[in-house]
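To assess whether the prediction recovers the assembly geometry, we first specified each molecular entity separately, as shown.
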Amino acid sequence: MTSAQDQIRETAAQLLSEGKADLVIGFSQGTRTMRTTPCFVTEADDAGQLVWNSYCSNNLAVYLPKCFAPDPRLREQEPPPKVAIIAKGCDGRSAVGLITEQQVPRENLIIIAAPCEGMLDADLAQQLVGQNQIVSAAESNGTITVKDDTGKETKFDRKDLLAEACRFCKHRAAPVHDIAIGELGQTDGPLAPDERFEEFVNKSTAERWEQFSGELSKCILCNACRSACPNCYCKVCFADQTRPDWTGSGRKFSDVISFHLGRMFHQAGRCVDCGACVRACPVGIDLRTFTYRLVADAQELFGHVAGLDLEQSPALRTFGADDSDNFITEPE
Amino acid sequence: MPQRKNEIAMRNPYRPILTEIEKITIENEARDLKTFRLAFCHAESADNFRYECGQFAELTIFGVGECPIGIASSPTDRGYLEFTVKRYPDGLVTNALHNCCVGTRIGVRGPLGNCFPTDRMEGSNVVIVGGGFAFTTLRSTIRYILHEKNRGRFEKVTLVYGARSPGELLYKQELERWQGRDDIETHITVDKGDETWTGKEGFVPAVLKEVAPNPDNAIALVCGPPIMLKFTLPVLTELGFGSGEIITSLENRMKCGIGLCGRCNIGSKYVCKDGPVFTYEQVQALPAEM
Amino acid sequence: MADSKIAKDKIPELLKAVSADYELYAPTAEDGTIAFRRIDSARQATLDYRNTAVSAKELFLPRAEVVYEFDGEKFLDDALLDQKRVVFGMRPCDCRALALLDLNFDTEQIKDPFYVTRRQNTVVVALACNEPVSSCFCTAVGSGPYSDQGADVLMAEAADYLSARAITDKGKDFMKQYGKLFSADGSADWKKLAKEAEDKIKRKPEFGNVKASLDERFENDIWEDISQKCLGCGACSYICPTCYCFDLVSEKTAGRIRKVKTWDCCMFGLFTLHASGHNPRPVNSARLRQKLMHKFNYYRERYGVDGCVGCGRCVRKCPVNLDIREVIEQVAAAPNATTEE
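The predicted structure of the complete assembly is given in tokenized form:
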């Protein structure tokens, strides 16, 4: 029986050789243990580079707007390419979002849904092992065996190494796809209760502010969260505008807060909770607990879950008669 | 290379000196080019500000930001500095500056950068070719050369300067005065004249070709928009000017202006520190990222 | 070679004594990350670490600092650092990074007084590496696990003691100040220990001819290929101990105008955007090229050394695993043909 990886390679090679795709975006082996790296295949012969394993964490949809954006160096633009993307649930939902926001033409995109049981967090594994470096990892039947540079082996249950976003993922499979590889994961319902988020929302306002400002005090304003997010494709981000200057010089903590509050609220109804921002953050800020507030709000207030349906209009662009109006207060 | 007059030990190079806008001249018909004459607020800074032609300064609009502008006045103009600044629709600082009135405090950091090689130009013929609003530091150089204290050090001076239309020519009154002098040969041209224009019509490169200055013992200073440079530099080369005898001034996005922030480099050269003045030979050695 | 040593169980006493005389910064573990933080009675140092996630660059080049303050009439006094500080436990790669930053900020013609006073007022006590990480490549860029460049004192760990040697005059003064806690001992064989540590660095990229390869390949299709996965996020520059590009912005509050110097990154799209709308580096490939050129070509041209210390943070933290070691090798191996028109 061919593995998902082999099927992905065959599918990619076929699409390219038949001219159905100009580019296949997937993953290839990384330079470090327990890592893969995004891979851009344009020749059928190179499809063998593609891998599919428990470390294919990045949200590849972040590359889609760039594939279809005009090249500033060309006076006459080339016709848009046909792009195929190997998509987990999150990549697939992001792609749907980008299509409905008119950043990606549906007819030029081939979504190849790949089977995902949640991706593993290499940094978490390293943290659990301690200071000795992990040099190899093998997976078998739900158990991950890592070996460190002293030769010591540690076994982990797969579910204990899941990336934070994957642990609470409700949509393992790309809801809209053109090709399906293997047994796709479940497409709805929580896999585990989201304890961290529940803990956060049940805190008092003061406690929530303490958690929020405590986490964000680590922020160095590197903008990696923004760059890794498929939804952040604005040519000029609000944070970079000078007229008006929304986020100040970046020196004061209020500038950091302005940036993050602004960015998070811009995700309302759009965020697919893929965890790309958390993964990209070099200082380990727990952004998910806060962005998930906007995801939950969109569901509670507007019955909207992002990225499941091509026909669905973006939440903040639609006004329905049933929309909550509890923000309208009676004059005193 | 000019001696850097800035003090070395632990002066704060980010801090500007204070000046005040003394006079504002609208230079062109489109009204987006203004010359600001700045008077020093403190006599000490006036004495310490010694610059050479071709250098620039970072102008501070307090609370808004800074922009790097070539110094348009000549070192022979004592007690004030002049800067001719174009207002860009998207420019935060240039817009703020154009909205300033006489009396506004402006910060100045400078003089910055290297300069036109006036030492090397001594005893030579000087050919000055300018286009559009890149003419500012060339104007500084002409004022310097024509000054009675300096004129004797230079040989023949030829000027070719052009703009899109008569209304877009900078320093109109000065151009007229230069045209009346016999120690500078002026060729002022416009791309397209109007009903009152009696002067030359034609692009700068074409006029330069016509004028055909002699390359022997001559140095050419050329400043203009990229499109003008693209066609002018070959003309000079054809006329026989070596690429070491053609001098130009480059621009780039800047912040510190003192070679520290890493922003304005073209290849390994910082436009603020190794430039902005470069020979054509040096420019040709730079990688293609302008 | 070392010339003195201190027992490991005496280190807390040393740090306590130092923190009474100086502002002391050392690696601490908090919230699951190890970073250089101020040590006081409430906070313990940990020397059981490989390297920090973010470099200690922040202590010398703060992420944001005020470079002047103006009240409308006059300038206020500059807020220069005047406290004496000790940074304890910095790895040799990070110390060498300070020496590289000095080349830019502390020159004969111009000095950044904020950076220079921080350097002058800080004693750097380095801790050599016995256990490099798989992403380390310091030996490929002229550094090493026992390099003393940029350090005032160098220490190295043995089983139950740290051996030490003063490198600079400032270091000698430091060792004299706390001489009571050290004993003279020159037995630690640093040369052997250094070799052992160097041998642990498995991946040794060949950077010898990098400048020449980069010179020949400014215009080359390879840049489009290698930059495809790069997000232009800037995380690499921010955590890098040698990246120093900065922005100067105005901050205006009631009655006060401040000029703020903040970290910036050549990978950002707006970095070189002109007011006219022209951008000499309009695409990601041009910006990634600039980053690599700056570090391995232009820095060498200006100062004779690479602008990289091989600490490997960018390798560890890049969200898409764009590995600078791999990328440099790919560029060097690219066919030397110019981009087709």
